[in-house]
Amino acid sequence: MRADPIDRPADLDVVRESYDQVADNYAHMVATTGMGDIRRHPWLKASIDAFADTVGELGPVLDVGCGPGTVTGYLTERGLDVSGVDLSPRMIENARRLHPHCRFSVASATELDLGEASLGGVLGWWSLFNLPRAVLPQVLAHFAYALKPGGHFIAGTHVGDEDAVRTEAYGGVPVRWTTHKWRPEQLVDLIEQAGLHPVAELRLPADEWSGPGVVVMAKRPA
């Protein structure tokens, strides 16, 4: 049995180019300000730690939209068999430079060729919000297909109702992408429709870097 193909977002190439443009600035800001570094955010770190404790014995873990590899590197230090993928080649170059002991490759969330029940865990850690609203359910279904029974998925994303168009980011670099925000109950509903069972939810207020957010962890039923 093969997973159903996923629609290719119309703006995929533009989004990839935009993240290539901001990749160096983003990696520098993570290192110098703590933005995006879970080690400096106790509740986010606790969420990732709970995920690691849950999936550690279940098999390979895939960090989808890994950026410069911050979470991939952390989970590797925790002893997990984890690899990272990202749409942006420049993000992957930074990830390989910063975390040379980890495995990284270039791929969109919509282009992954994942085997059925091949993964113990999947992360979509603030990395799925650029997916069009009609495409995200397809990607979630593919993740559910790839998880082993008992395997877990964790996602973090921006909370809201709107589709926010970004024209600059991370130090004023010109970009072109849309941030599709979701209400927590909408995201949970999509995860359930994909065939996963939500097991935990963390709602986060706005901070100096971002608006409100939500983290959801779910498992594939055994």
TrEMBL record:
Q: Protein name, please? A: Class I SAM-dependent DNA methyltransferase
Which UniProt keywords are present, listed alphabetically?
A: Methyltransferase, Transferase
Single GO biological process annotation from the record: methylation
Tell me which residues make up the Methyltransferase domain: 61-151
Q: Name one GO molecular function term.
A: methyltransferase activity
Q: Which SUPFAM superfamilies match?
A: S-adenosyl-L-methionine-dependent methyltransferases
Which CDD domains does this UniProt record tie to the protein? AdoMet_MTases
**Annotated organism of origin:** Streptomyces fildesensis
Give the matching Pfam families. Answer: Methyltransf_25 (PF13649)
